[in-house]
Amino acid sequence: MRPRPLASSLALIGLLLSACDTGTREDPRPGGSTAAPATAATPPAAATPSSAAPLAAAPTAAAAAPASAVLGPDPVVALAFELRAGASAIDLAGLDVAASGSIDERDLGDATLFDDTNANGLLDAGEAPLAVAPALTTDDGTYSFALAPPVRIAAGTVRHFLVAVDATPLTGPALAGAAGKNLVLTLPSAAAVLAYDANGPVSPGGSFPIEGRIPLAAGEHVLISEVVTGPGSGVSSQEYIELFNPTAQAVDLSDHYLSDFTDDPLTGRFYWKLPTGRDFGPAAADFAYDFVVRFPPGARIAPGQVITVALDGQGFLNAYGQSADYCLRNRGSSSATPMLAWDGVAPGANFVAADVHASVGLTGPAGAPTGNGESVFLFRWDGVSDLIVDVDLINYGSASATNAAVNKSPGQQATNPGAPDVSVDSAFDNDATPSTFQDDADDLFQLDHRAPLAQSIERVDFREGSERRGNGNGEAGHDETSEPFGDGLGGAGTFQVGAAPTPGRLP
């Protein structure tokens, strides 16, 4: 921090600083604003400060420690600390909080100091903002808070505080790029705390620095980030599905499946019937067009990583000059890892190393990119439970009788009012008690919000738009069928027409 001149009335502050204080202060800037509640991150524990000091600083002892902060409308709390007054009342007038970590703080908004009234290290509804520091113009800069009027800490009491940063400026690729990074906020020394008692400036005791660190996530589950529908077939195929991990943790994909097999009411076959061992994949006559595949054992996707799943391994290599991470058929001379295909034996859910049919593609039989529409499903099943879990999906292009809406809740549909939701009993657990799916979005919503059909269909909204986040059949209760992929007429929604394929990288 750059030194600043102090008024003569504050000259004693340098003499009162403890021997461990080496920092200088910046000009505190005036603040005062409101902020929405958020899930908070908290710092690691530090030594208990001396009770003899007129003011003692420490991390909040009871603070919880969330695994990560999902970047969204709520501010991200990365620092929770307490200030304890000794024999005299203390007025807190300013703070300098140093920012660091792998995130570039210039991409974030302003920072807010909150009163943590229940001392739980989390930002709860009703906890008041005390001061605001402007957004940083340099990476790893310092947020300077000026409290006007000062905050009073009564003699012999402790007061708890949170520092939160606004993440709403992060959108699109910038938001996606923050996944797997971290935000670190620190009170570096006693000199970073500007406080007074009745006799003048006081220097807090305690164990400095006091640090808070929170891993950042751009979402709660793996996302489909791009679908390329053509052109070409066989060894000239350019088709692929791209996945992105917006979370702060690596995800094990070995229990994840990909399919383009949409609900088929004509045959009673649906991808979500996988746990029954029957009727979850295309009939024999449809194997030339549709697929259900599983990721192989050991498959993982790291935080912030983008992976590609090619329809044809050699075709992808020929088209893009690089190997896909995985492929559904014809590895050829590429280094792509083959996906596992269903062995076709029913009842059963055995997936083996085998190529899908050479004609399988990501649009209907009329061919890409002007053929019929399609859907792609990423779902998870543990091999035992009654119900699969929707991880992500996309509906694009025009609908058809066998490529319409995902329908696990016929009672929601205008064509079948009052029908019960679908129940499934796994053939691989130890009971005969079925479980019931939650309601999917109704058919009309899904038909009106299909993404446009193009060679490249790319995700532009990594927060999934207005998708319902509760009481759904997806990860963390999301309803993946309620995502507005497009406007159903060729216009953009959470996906848009890409200018060109971008395999292995976000647009």
Task: Estimate the strand proportion.
Answer: 25-35%
Ends distance: 37 Å
Which of globular, elongated, flat, extended, rod-shaped describes the shape? elongated
How many strand segments? Answer: 33
**Ranges with pLDDT <50 over ≥5 residues?**
1-51, 365-371
Explain the layout of strands and helices.
Blueprint (H helix, E strand, L loop, with lengths): L12 H4 L12 E2 L24 E5 L9 E2 L5 E10 L4 E11 L10 E5 L13 E5 L8 E12 L4 E8 L6 H6 L4 E6 L5 E5 L2 E3 L2 E2 L3 E8 L5 E6 L11 E5 L6 E2 L3 E4 L32 E3 L5 E2 L4 E5 L2 H8 L5 E2 L9 E2 L1 E3 L8 E3 L20 E7 L8 E8 L26 E2 L10 E2 L6 H6 L7 E4 L8 E2 L8 E2 L15 E3 L10
Parallel strand pairs: 1-8, 2-13, 3-14, 21-22, 22-23
Antiparallel strand pairs: 2-4, 4-9, 5-8, 5-10, 5-11, 6-7, 6-9, 10-14, 11-12, 15-16, 15-30, 16-21, 17-20, 18-19, 18-26, 19-24, 24-25, 26-27, 28-29, 30-33, 31-32
Would you kindly provide a written description of the structure presented here, covering whatever features stand out?
- With 507 residues, this protein is mostly beta strands.
- The chain folds into two domains: 8-216, no CATH class; 223-497, no CATH class.
- Helices cover 5% and strands 30% of the residues.
- The chain contains four helices and 33 strands.
- Strands 1, 3, 5, 8, 10, 11, 12 and 14 form an eight-stranded mixed beta sheet that branches.
- The chain is elongated.
